[in-house]
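Predict structure. Chain length: 131.
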Amino acid sequence: MKKYITIVLKCIVSFTIANVWLFRYGKQTIYRGGEATDLVSEFAAYGLSLITMYAIGTLKVFAALLLLISIFYKKMELPPLLVIGGLMTAALYFHFSIGDALIKSLPAALMLSACTLIYFLRFQKQEEAKE
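Prediction complete.
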């Protein structure tokens, strides 16, 4: 059962990141930081450059792809979890740093929670295998 929960969570995290960065890049949502209407203006609201936005976007999409691949190759699991978890922690920081309403940080909090749960399900599997 844990295996299937982990697979579902990996798919949710990966497809959510892909959706935001590839399909909803230029669209307004209630989750954009500040008064932003797209990703460019959201990163500007945080005081981050366009280059930073592209670097983070590339890193997130690449990590999401690796997370999907890790469904089949377990050894690839930890790096994308750490990258996505770290980036979601940073996203939460930036939402709070500009005084966003809590609802705006909900997606980042959910993705961080999902990555944490995947990690602990993975860790528990390894501990059970050692016994």
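Summary: Residues 71 and 83 are 17 Å apart (CA to CA).
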